[in-house]
Amino acid sequence: MPIILILLALVVVIGLYVMVTYNGLVALRNKIDNAWAQIDVQLKRRYDLIPNLVETVKGYAAHERETLDAVVKARNLAMAATGPHEQAQAENMISGALKSLFALSEAYPDLKANQSFLNLQEELTGTEGRIAYARQYYNDTVVRFNTRIQSFPANVIASQFKFDEREYFDVDEADRGPVAVDFGRPPAVDLGAGDPPPPPADPPAPPAAT
């Protein structure tokens, strides 16, 4: 009889552990999905701002076709991206294209002073900050989830119930800050590799005839 009670108690303990672990993994998975949804909201906000920015720049620098096309192409690729890893790569392209676009303002004083351009730049900077905050929360939650399903004995339960590792949403180190540009300082201009080399020395005079 005591052996039966011990076995029943053991079954109850194991069952409780499985239930608690399973529910904890479900909660973490739902937090990850919710965190990704928050990122998606901010990304879509940025995608909506970009066409207005491009049109504003066109009014002052329509001939800067290559830079404008790069921004539009990066936006289209980002909108078609699937999954955190692919999305992160696309967002890196957008950040780089936007920085090039903002740098154009230094060559166009009227554009730099345009209120619509300044407002869009400010909105994009704020959106970048919110994306960075949401990305940090998402990645922190993914770390907790992935660590949990890799640890014994939770990994046994995770395997049985098909809990798979989730991808991180990582961006390049250079793109971690908000997209911004210093409107008060002109860009550096590369004038070449430095001062030109000195002219060659005159050839030596021929020896005097003896």
Structure description:
- The chain has one domain: Up-down Bundle (de novo design (two linked rop proteins)).
- It contains six helices and no strands.
- The protein has 210 residues and is mainly α.
- The chain has helices at 2-61, 65-80, 84-103, 109-112, 115-150, 154-160.
- Mean pLDDT is 81; it is low at 175-210.
Q: Note the run of SSEs as H and E.
A: HHHHHH
The coarse silhouette is: rod-shaped
Helix/strand-derived category reads: mainly alpha
| N-to-C CA distance | 131 Å
Number of strands: 0
Approximately what portion of the residues adopt beta-strand conformation?
A: under 5%
Helix content: 55-70%
Helical run tally: 6
From the alpha-carbon coordinates, what is the Rg to the nearest angstrom? 29 Å
Briefly note the CATH topology name: de novo design (two linked rop proteins)
Main sheet attributes: strand count, strand direction, barrel closure: none
Number of domains: 1
- Mean of all residue-level pLDDT scores: 81
Regarding CATH, which class?
A: Mainly Alpha
Which residues sit in consecutive blocks of at least 5 with pLDDT less than 50?
175-210
Looking at CATH, the homologous superfamily is LemA-like domain
CATH architecture: Up-down Bundle
